[in-house]
């Protein structure tokens, strides 16, 4: 199948699933199914290995960043009858099947009709982020007539795994009005390894400097470009402007971005009988997908009602320590458990204290403090 080389979606309140892609006419050819195929694969039972693998391939393909993973999870949950709840709103109870998105994290649940006296939460956890190269702000640099991207290593990857692979850019753009735009490109960059005759010791000891050796090449000036065109091409914010064009937004309206590289090579079966699967981002999208498939199966018509409340949490930022508002060390899970427990008639802290906690959560749900990197200002503002 063929897919356009870029896509973007917009939502003023939360991440959403990708809409019909728009952008340049170039295409990237892939043998893997997209989101529609991943949903179609659910026709097979949970123990059907081929159907499950097709579903996993579709999920990984649709999830080049943590934001896309949360959006794709939400899309499939909606198809299974789950309803979205928003943290910035007061809840009058909670749906029996629901979910909440916070940045690149998502929590989903299934609640019983009645809560038994000895019932307890059954929770499965995973994370949506994977090791990557994260795009720095205004990071384009020109060296020897080639424009490269300034990036930082995100998480704990094998650094050599970035070499000589076609890379795309994917993530979230946030405009000054607080609207979030998901964006992804096709293959636009490559971390090129030096030729062996220029480094005779490369097969004895490969050392990669994170700042000097992992800058993806991504642009050449147009043939015959005049002085003004060259000046525009060499702008430090060229990557942001390119992504804004794909997302259909004015670059002057961009407030911040969280964009990573991802290998554009499609997942593929291999082995003598095709019994193995090779794919990037299986850490930890394979676990997110497994939890999602379990919820889809439990929400299917005729599935037995749960004896107690069930919950899936897929946090972001596990690769960098989890101590963020959407990470496992942050307040996301606690906040949603408090709300759901209250909806089930369980007062964990007791009236006034619990009400104060919920008031605080409503006040913070639309705020974000972010530091772009060294020598960049701390900024606060509304986000989706």
UniProtKB/TrEMBL annotation:
Pfam families: Peptidase_M18. It comes from Actinomyces bowdenii. It comes from the Bacteria. Its cofactor is Zn(2+). The lineage of its organism: Bacteria, Bacillati, Actinomycetota, Actinomycetes, Actinomycetales. It is an enzyme of class 3 (hydrolase). Gene3D superfamilies: Aminopeptidase i, Domain 2, Zn peptidases. This is M18 family aminopeptidase. GO terms for molecular function: aminopeptidase activity; metallopeptidase activity; zinc ion binding.
């Amino acid at each position: 199948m063929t897919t356009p080389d870029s896509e973007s979606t917009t939502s003023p309140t939360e991440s959403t699933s990708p809409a019909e892609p728009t952008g340049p006419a170039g295409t990237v050819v892939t043998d893997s199914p997209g989101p529609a195929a991943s949903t179609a694969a659910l026709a097979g039972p949970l123990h059907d290995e081929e159907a499950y693998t097709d579903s996993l391939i579709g999920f990984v393909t649709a999830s080049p960043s943590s934001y896309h993973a949360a959006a794709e999870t939400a899309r499939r949950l909606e198809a299974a009858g789950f309803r979205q709840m928003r943290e910035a709103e007061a809840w009058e109870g909670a749906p029996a099947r629901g979910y909440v998105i916070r940045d690149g994290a998502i929590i989903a649940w299934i609640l019983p009709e009645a809560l038994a006296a000895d019932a307890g939460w059954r929770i499965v956890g995973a994370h949506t982020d994977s090791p990557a190269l994260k795009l720095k702000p205004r990071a384009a640099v020109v060296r020897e007539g080639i424009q490269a991207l300034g990036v930082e290593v995100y998480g704990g990857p094998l650094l050599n795994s970035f070499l000589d692979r076609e890379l795309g850019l994917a993530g979230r753009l946030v405009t000054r009005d607080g609207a979030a735009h998901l964006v992804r490109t096709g293959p636009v960059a490559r971390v090129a390894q030096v030729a062996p005759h220029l480094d005779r010791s490369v097969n004895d000891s490969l050392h990669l400097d994170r700042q000097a050796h992992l800058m993806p090449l991504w642009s050449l000036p147009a043939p015959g470009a005049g002085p003004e065109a060259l000046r525009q091409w060499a702008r430090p914010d060229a990557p942001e402007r390119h992504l804004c064009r794909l997302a259909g937004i004015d670059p002057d309206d961009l407030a911040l971005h969280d964009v990573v590289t991802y290998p554009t090579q499609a997942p593929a079966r291999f082995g003598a009988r095709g019994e193995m699967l090779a794919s990037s981002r299986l850490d930890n999208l394979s676990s997110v997908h497994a939890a999602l498939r379990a919820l889809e199966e439990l929400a299917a018509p005729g599935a037995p009602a749960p004896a107690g409340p069930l919950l899936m949490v897929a946090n972001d930022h596990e690769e960098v320590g989890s101590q963020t508002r959407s990470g496992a060390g942050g307040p996301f899970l606690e906040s949603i458990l408090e709300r759901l427990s209250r909806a089930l008639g369980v007062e964990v802290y007791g009236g006034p204290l619990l009400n104060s906690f919920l008031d605080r959560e409503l006040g913070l749900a639309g705020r974000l403090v972010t530091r772009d990197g060294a020598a960049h200002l701390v900024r606060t503002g509304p986000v989706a």
